[in-house]
Amino acid sequence: MSSQENSESLPEAQATAHGAVETAGDPFADPGLPAHKPRIQDIDERAAKRSERAVAFLFFLSMVATVGFIASYVIFPVDKIVFIFPFGHVSVLNFALGLTLGVALFCIGAGAVHWARTLMSDVEMPAERHEIAAPPEVKAQVLADFKQGAAESGFGRRKLIRNTMFGALALVPLSGVMLLRDLGTLPEDKLRHTMWSKGKALINMNTNEPLRPEDLTVGSLTFAKPEGLEETAEDFQTQIAKAALMLVRIKPEDIKDKRELEWSHQGIVAYSKICTHVGCPISLYEQQTHHVLCPCHQSTFDLSDGARVIFGPAGHALPQLRIGVNDEGYLEALGDFEEPVGPAFWERG
Amino acid sequence: MKKLSARRRHPLAAVVVLLLALAATGGLYAAFAPAGKAQADETAQSLAIDEGKKLYSVGCASCHGTGGQGTSDGPSLVGVGAAAVDFQVGTGRMPAQQPGAQVPKKKAIYSQAQIDQLAAYVASLGAGPSVPTDSQYNPSGADIAKGGELFRTNCAQCHNFTGEGGALTNGKFAPSLEDVDPKHIYEAMQTGPQNMPSFPDTTMPQKQKQDIIAYLHAVNSDKSASPGGLKLGGLGPVSEGLFGWIFGLGALIAVAIWVAAHTAKAKKS
Amino acid sequence: MSTTTDARREAPAGERIADWADGRLGIYSLAKANMRKIFPDHWSFMLGEICMYSFIIIILTGVYLTLFFHPSMNEVVYDGSYVPLQGMHMSEAFNSTMHISFDVRGGLLIRQIHHWAALIFLAGMFVHMMRVFFTGAFRKPREVNWLFGFLLFVLGMFTGFTGYSLPDDLLSGTGVRFMEGAIMSVPIVGTYLSFFLFGGEFPGGDFVARFYSVHILLLPGIMLGLMVAHLILVFYHKHTQFAGPGRTNKNVVGMPLLPVYMAKAGGFFFLVFGVIAVVAAIASINPIWAIGPYRPDQVSTGAQPDWYMGFSEGLIRVMPGWEINLWGHTLVLGVFIPLVIFPLVLATIAVYPFIESWITGDKREHHIADRPRNAPTRTAFGVAWITWYMVLLIGGGNDLWATHFHLSINVITWFVRIAFFVAPVLAFVATKRICLGLQRRDAAKVLHGRESGIIKRLPHGEFVEIHEPLDANARYKLTAHEQYKPAEIGPTVDENGVARKISRTQKLRAKLSKGYFGEGNQIPKPTAEEYEEITSGHGHH
């Protein structure tokens, strides 16, 4: 059958590199393009008139909507909120402008499409396709031209020119790379240090006052920043991104990790608020399970067990800050974090 | 309910509540204090405790123990205070219907008077936070913007930017705060119900709790404005993405089908 | 251009202007080739137009937004009209976005149109790409255009991400922080890359300005160029069409650009713009006032990226927390592996056309769009890929699935971990079976006709349904698709009896070809003889 025919014509097909595959033939002949059938508008002038009026009406509606847009802009104050069912308490200006603009645009489109669909000719016609690839004689001509050009340039012959040119072209982008150097400072050991240091009081994020141990009850959650870091400071964002602290009080007998207990003060434990996965501020503390969940990627840490990871994509425990109490009875840090806070990185070790 | 909650924000609401409270106290006084004035308070109190104890042994003791000492099914109630009872029973969480990851809120089954009696009894078991008064939780005059900042620092991590709620581990969740009674919000912050940590007055003073309540009322009540239109649940990009796909692209594909469809022919073949 | 005639001159004004332009630009030759260019009618051929038009809308509204937006991270105190933020410290970027939303009349609308159009642009590109995939419209000569389109999708994702980050709000800031963590996980150079991107430590004071120039200039510039190239190639190749009477691989049947498609496509731009404007009027998007300004120590639950980045979010959420510490260095696999899989997921679909053409060995041009059922293995592969993508999208929103369907977040995470490997396989098998079933149905329809719904009782009491034979057009349409025969390795010994060396790739290709076109992997088309026998015999049905 058809496969036989195909295999017979195969050598020729391969020679021209077209159709080097076997396919099953079509069982039925192409009946050809069906004859065009008229629409109502093509035979009934009244129907055509109706379509014409519909198109004109849509364009007219668009004009009305644009006038409505301008009127809305002038009439409605920018801060006016009204209740519009079912959208809620919305800005009436936004609603009116959007709706009128939408209608104005949509009607232009609908008019144009309705015009095309009902009144413009809908006779389907074929257009021939032409093969994309050039005929062999064109290809031969191009190759010959290229060879001639290449020979005239002496590119292949004068190796010294060619090699030095490659060298120059390869080197020149380095200037661009150099220029990128001042995009940022080098990491150095910046990721290893935070603002915390020995003797810095723990300041309550809410009240901006130093915290006393008795302020924190079992089951409570408090956030703290280092003494001396004010919201108005120029580098506040960068500092708080590393120094943010989460304080919870756990009954000392519930703390399973020995070092955690040692670094706590009467069961008050201070952990970095920055997730060790990719740095979200973690703080979804469940006071009965002592689990703390990250809202971004669901890493879960157990605050009663050295904040080790018990679920999710984080790779290591939250860093703990060693705390104690100063002479005046306020909580203070007994040093910086002993390991980098936040996401892990190559040099972290 | 809508009308009620709307009126609750009225400047005079505090006065009305105060008057009502006075009247109620007076009424209770009249009911429970036929005896001499000096003993009246004490008697009313002990009467409430007695009534509360009765309610307790019927509705609560099976899980929390006959003396509130706790069992394997429920924590000890010694020292949780009246505020915790008012929150748990007032929001319908207690008595719990069935064990699960978390006890959800439902319609309260006790009247406020019964809740007060239960609270009095539990408070008598050990000192704890008492039920806040209107002047403690009433948000009128509070700093909404400060409340917003406090909310984002302390609450949004579990309850979402505007208090729509969110997921916790193993099926637990932080509930939506939409139209929660200010008193209950206050009590929750004070007592830390279930897995929610507490935010005691020592770390978050009363004024700041009022700020937070005021912020929540501004952004998440049935009257909060959403200037841009439908809030889409206030959940962020997930609901926006779904809306964009279904109603945005969906509408456009419907339009495309119309544009490309063949116009009706004069005669069907 | 005016077409009114000027009585004093020989040629109308419009013609004279055209003459002027032709002498300099050669517009007549250009118009000759294109003015009556034929486009086929099918709704799915308009998906690309949705993308193009939303891109234009994004550019128009984006230009408007730049008039008011300040790409600066300098700290200011908010004193605008939105009460719940008054007195808050925030960056100028956030402040100016608040200004656009609350104090510029119509600013909120333009912001919302911009953002909604961006979501629809990406969604449109996704659907457009899938249309091209499932109809095999990526085959020769359109492979390059497939890659252009793919690049547009990927660049669109990053343009979207940088734009989403510009307002410096708490949600987008969390996303940027994630990006910083992801970059830091790159072995050896991660910290340097991060410090160069942010101008030092995160968040620093530079990234908004840097993202701004990337968002409004670099990426859209490249995209505009790619889009023009994409369009030129569409014109040059002429559009594909579905098989049908008179529609062959050598022609394209449809209606001319002028006037029908000028009106339809031009009108469609206004339709798209109108729909998006209405969406922006009724639905809020990215309400930064409710989200608040970015602070690295604050966060909200339900922190997600826009939908097109959702699958990468899913990857990162379900990855186990692997971390290797060796010789004083840390390999952060828990973050780095998802970072590597992210482009691989996209590349999987991008390289498919080349794999298929290698398997079929077909070097011919293809202009007839396949019906998905007639290419079962390709269709199954595409559905498997979409399933893979959707599983990751579920992972990216696991917290919202948990709260809205009362499920445990841990269970959903485990489900996604398993489904990542299993679901695409199941989808592949199921889709292929469905395709083959549909092919069988088509074959039966051709041979026996369509079920008329008329039940006839035969004299001996049997009930039969009358089948109406198809007309020639329908019969041709259902059998005009191409069916390959599996590639053979050929004889393993040559004519002299010497063993022929068969490379491993050749064997693999033959195996794959059998999987595509071998027995049981496609249903043979009914033959003319079968049809003759059935229609003439009438003895059986």
UniProtKB/TrEMBL annotation, chain A:
Role, per record: Iron-sulfur subunit of the cytochrome bc1 complex, an essential component of the respiratory electron transport chain required for ATP synthesis. The bc1 complex catalyzes the oxidation of menaquinol and the reduction of cytochrome c in the respiratory chain. The bc1 complex operates through a Q-cycle mechanism that couples electron transfer to generation of the proton gradient that drives ATP synthesis.
Xref: Pfam families: QcrA_N, Rieske
Membrane topology: Multi-pass membrane protein
The name this protein goes by in its record: Cytochrome bc1 complex Rieske iron-sulfur subunit
Residue stretches making up the Rieske domain: 242-332
UniProt-annotated stretches for the region Disordered: 1-33
Classification lineage: Bacteria, Bacillati, Actinomycetota, Actinomycetes, Kitasatosporales
Membrane-spanning intervals of the chain: 54-75, 95-116, 160-180
Keyword tRNA processing: no
InterPro entries: QcrA_N, Rieske_2Fe-2S, Rieske_2Fe-2S_sf, Rieske_Fe-S_prot
Automatic annotation (TrEMBL), chain B:
InterPro entries reported for this sequence: bc1_cytC-su (IPR009152), Cyt_c-like_dom (IPR009056), Cyt_c-like_dom_sf (IPR036909), Cytochrome_c_Oxidase_Subunit (IPR050597), TAT_signal (IPR006311)
Reaction(s) this enzyme catalyzes, per UniProt: a quinol + 2 Fe(III)-[cytochrome c](out) = a quinone + 2 Fe(II)-[cytochrome c](out) + 2 H(+)(out)
Signal sequence interval, chain numbering: 1-30
Start and end residues of each Cytochrome c domain: 47-126, 142-220
PROSITE patterns: CYTC, TAT
Transmembrane feature ranges: 242-261
Membrane topology, record value: Multi-pass membrane protein
Domain of life of the native organism: Bacteria
Keywords, ordered alphabetically: Cell membrane, Electron transport, Heme, Iron, Membrane, Metal-binding, Repeat, Respiratory chain, Signal, Translocase, Transmembrane, Transmembrane helix, Transport
Pfam family, one: Cytochrome_CBB3
Enzyme Commission number(s): 7.1.1.8
Keyword Transferase in annotation: no
Compartment annotation: Cell membrane
Major subcellular site: membrane
Complex formation: The cytochrome bc1 complex is composed of a cytochrome b (QcrB), the Rieske iron-sulfur protein (QcrA) and a diheme cytochrome c (QcrC) subunit.
Protein name (database record): Cytochrome bc1 complex cytochrome c subunit
Organism: Streptomyces violascens
From TrEMBL, chain C:
Catalytic activity as recorded in UniProt: a quinol + 2 Fe(III)-[cytochrome c](out) = a quinone + 2 Fe(II)-[cytochrome c](out) + 2 H(+)(out)
Required co-factors: heme
Keywords from the named record: Membrane, Transmembrane, Transmembrane helix
Segments forming domain Cytochrome b/b6 N-terminal region profile: 17-243
Region feature (Disordered): 519-541
SUPFAM superfamilies per UniProt: Transmembrane di-heme cytochromes
Top-level lineage group: Bacteria
Membrane spanning residue stretches: 45-69, 115-134, 146-166, 178-199, 211-236, 257-285, 331-355, 375-395, 407-431
EC number of the protein: 7.1.1.8
PANTHER family linked: CYTOCHROME B
Protein's recorded name: Cytochrome bc1 complex cytochrome b subunit
Protein species of origin: Streptomyces violascens
